[in-house]
Amino acid sequence: MHALMGENGAGKSTLMRILSGVYQPTSGTVRLRGEVVNFRTPKEARLAGVSTVFQEFTLIPNLTVAENMFLGHEPRRADGSIDRAEVIDRSRSLLTDVFPQLDPMAIVDTLTIAQQQAVEIAKGLTSNADVFIFDEPTAALNSADVEHLFKVIRNLKGAGKAIVYISHRMNEVFELCDKITVMKDGAWVKTAKAEEFNLHSLVATMVGRELQNFFPSRAGETGDHMLEVSNLRLDAEGPTVQFSVKRGEILGLAGLEGQGQREIMRALVGVEPPKSVTVRRRGADSSMRAVNVSSGFSNAISAGIGFIPEDRKQEGLFLRLPIYDNIALGKQLNRSMASVAWRSVSRVRDIIKSLRVAAADPGAPVGKLSGGNQQKVLLGRWLLSGVDILVIEEPTRGVDVGAKAEIYRLLRDFSERGGAVIVSSRELAELIGLCDNILIVHDRKVVGQTPAVGATEESILGTALGSHSTHDQRAAVH
Amino acid sequence: MNTVATYLRVPYRAGAIRLSIGTLVLMVLASIIFLPGFLAGENLSNLLAQSTTLVISALGQTFVILTGGLDVSVGSIISVTTAIMTLDMPPFVRVLLCIAVATAFGLVNGYGVARLNVHPIIMTLATMGIGQGLALIILPIPGGRVPDWLSMSVAGSIGPLPNALVWLVVASLVAAWILYRRPFGLYLFAAGGNEFNARMNGVPVKRTIINAYVLSALFACAAGMFLAGRLASGDPKGGAAFGIESVTAAALGGVHLAGGIGSIFGTVVGAAILGLVNNVMNLANVSAFLQSVAKGALLLVLVVSQRRKTIGL
Description:
heterodimer, A: Rossmann fold, Rossmann fold, 3 domains, 6-stranded mixed sheet, B: mainly alpha, ABC transporter involved in vitamin B12 uptake, BtuC, 2 strands, 72% helix
């Protein structure tokens, strides 16, 4: 079991795509069981026994789970038609081993991100391969499902399969893998047994330097309450949620997957209006005034509240537009349609420079940037727009280690300049390191609040589950 | 029916089919109650004969729309087919010629869309023009004679079953078999749902798209045969309306024009709604201009009330 590590943009995913036949190498050879192979299509690779779970989902939204799992290699009947019964039976038996909660007849589009990831993994198991490649399989999974997946991977390993494992989560790599190869800037750096690395030396090898302080120091002193959310009801019958953020504070929303963090975040900015919500923020004259978020996100923006969604590519960025335009949009938000859009080239340049977006040319399309740089572009947009409250989902999803530290620092800078940040994340360690205070969300309500200093992953999960111990099962894929 | 069972198992992918069925049922009930002549045998067989061409061409159109494309050349292929059927040649040569011409049109459409990346509307607009011209060259004015067996196969009946119904049912079953039983059908949904991911999974997307256009052309060819049989002659402009009407019928049946969502049963229902509107308004002596207004309004109301999900338009 071999781990492939490296920052985003190091070339791990590209290498895996070559191994799985999506891309063709310009030079060099790939050997499978000692023989030189050259896969021209993903299908050839799969037939040769190389099965890949891609980082980017490759699911088809309008097909069922079962159809997705066998797409491209459906079991056929004698007359060449698809053997539906076989498709359903085999996917059901595969799913009972891995993710028993998944219904093979469910349409993929109706599943949550975590469930889709589960399908993606299950799909990789349908072919009887000898080599399995997992490219960040746990990026969207919660702890319970990760444990489940590890069991499956260990079984594969026990059955004598070769496994390539890519992850940005260090503890997973140390827990699972025998060997680690580090890549940087598209080139090989080092291969060694997992025992020969420790967390620090591994990170140092990946970024090429020691990371001094992964997380920036916390807020020294926080100011007045800056934003108050009260009477937030996600369902007509549901409990109400209330909390507030102070000036200079970074507030985290923690909890198991799909317990309502996402809905709460989106409700308070008006992206997905809830049943009811009252949002009040401190105005220039230091009195609290209401923000009418229920009639849409634009009201939040004009009240100085910005929002960065989890799905940067789909919901945040205009991938084909240049970096410049993506940031400059921040200046045009909430202005009359008829107003003149001056090009503020120098201000955008300043922002690109101060965020250290790694791109020589602000005219390059955002889609070509790595995850970390894309996140910086989104931050830049809100910096330009001048908001002082930022709501940000999964700030480092798909972001490599080096850039993670930078994004944490940028968020902390934002709060230190008199802003307030609300952040949600699946990685509890991230919330504990980054935030000042953490709200624990479970079953669509806030079940606890804790200062981040002194909090542990166990204490947070304990609070979340303790509040509803009878519903433990819901923590799994469902 | 096969399609109904599939629909029940995978309701999502069939689109807003319940709405279409409900509309059709209401319209039939209203027609029976308010139009005394509606249930007369003559009117019903008229309605069936008028609708069958539409149903068959809309079935072909459905394959193309499922990939996210559009085939407006359907009408011209119907016209060319009726024209070829009047040529002075042995009947079976005429049939083979029709099939060959339709296949050629489908291949050109599909090749242009899948390989040359021409937008489907532009591609099929071009071949629509070519096909219309070709039909007028072969048969400048309506007329000529089609083989007797063809007229018989459309007009007669097998026992109590009118032949037109047999055409309709056979075409629907063939379409349903292709869409729900063949791997090609699954690939159509996959290509329409997410083309890039379909390719990543080893779906031959380009070949699937080309085949969809060929199928559309072949169904148009069958629709043309039926029309020629019904008219017992050729009409070089007789198919022109079906390019747009077949799209309308599919949309009325819950097929999403963005691709990936739709069903054979839905298309049949949609085509039946459109055929019924034509028939009923003729029966009620509504002016042709007003009929057009009513059809446009119906399309708008029905499509707007379909609940839209994240994929499809």
